[in-house]
Amino acid sequence: MGVLISGSGTNLQAIIDRIADGSLNAEIVLVVSSRPSAAGLKRAADAGIQTLALSKDIYADPWDADEVIATELKRAGAEYIVMAGYMRKVHEPLLALWPDRVVNIHPALLPSFQGAHGIQDAYERGVKVTGVTVHFANAVYDQGPIIAQESVRVEEGMTLDELEAAIHAVEHQLYPHVVKLLVEGRVHVNDDRTVSIS
Ligand code: GRF
């Protein structure tokens, strides 16, 4: 698989760790970062994974950027694309090459609290339950078929920092689990674009 990141890469790390401990039988062939300064690049390098850091300039035309990324991921032999805190959209050049094989993680229960601030938006709205969603990416952000969701309770008096920590803890369990289902061929998109797990 190829992993797309932009930031700290803790979800990338969770996947690396599951591969290292033998509970996830998969290989990360390339990590692509939309930011050269992303801390996740060091995590990849430390694990001996090939990396590609893209500069901001390449995103002047996002379709061109996706063509570059797709070419490199194909060259590396990626069969699945895992978006892990990737703060850019993916477009047709990439999606068309990996149909229903590009996944994303979102720190809220979609379709609620879409966008870049899912945790804070849910917290400020005062919801009592939020959570984590893993879904297929499609051209419309945060709206691809939902693969898995897990809830997180917003406890009385919880701070935003505490909620963030609780969400990330769930992400780090859920994402490697879903990636495992995916690479085992157990995730099926139905004709109505819902998802079944076998
Ligand atoms: C995660 O909360 C993920 O849900 C969101 O961005 C964050 C990435 O964190 N899309 P990290 O880079 O994996 O640490």
Question: What's the gist of this structure?
Answer:
The chain is built from six helices and nine strands, in the order E-H-E-H-E-H-E-H-E-H-E-E-H-E-E. By secondary structure, the chain is of the alpha/beta class. The mean pLDDT is 97.
Tell me what the structure shows:
Strand 1 (2-5), helix 1 (10-20) and strand 2 form a beta-alpha-beta unit. The chain contains six helices and nine strands. Helix 1 (10-20) crosses helix 6 (160-183). The chain is α/β, with parallel strands linked by helices and 198 residues long. Strands 3-2-1-4-5-6-7 form a seven-stranded mixed β-sheet, sandwiched between helices. It has a two-stranded antiparallel ribbon with strand order 8-9. The longest helix has 24 residues, at 160-183. The chain has helices at 10-20, 40-46, 62-76, 92-95, 118-125, 160-183, and strands at 2-5, 30-33, 51-53, 81-83, 102-106, 129-136, 146-153, 187-189, 195-197. The protein has a single domain, classed as 3-Layer(aba) Sandwich (Rossmann fold). 5-O-phosphono-beta-D-ribofuranosylamine (GRF) binds next to helix 1, strand 5 and helix 6.
CATH architecture heading: 3-Layer(aba) Sandwich
Helix content: 25-40%
Q: What does the main sheet amount to?
A: 7 strands, mixed
The CATH fourth-level homologous superfamily = Formyl transferase, N-terminal domain
Q: CATH class, please?
A: Alpha Beta
Low-confidence stretches: none
Give, in spatial order, the strands making up the sheet with the most strands: 3-2-1-4-5-6-7
| Tally of separate helices | 6
Number of strands: 9
Are any ligands bound, and if so which? 5-O-phosphono-beta-D-ribofuranosylamine
**N-to-C SSE string, H for helix and E for strand:** EHEHEHEHEHEEHEE
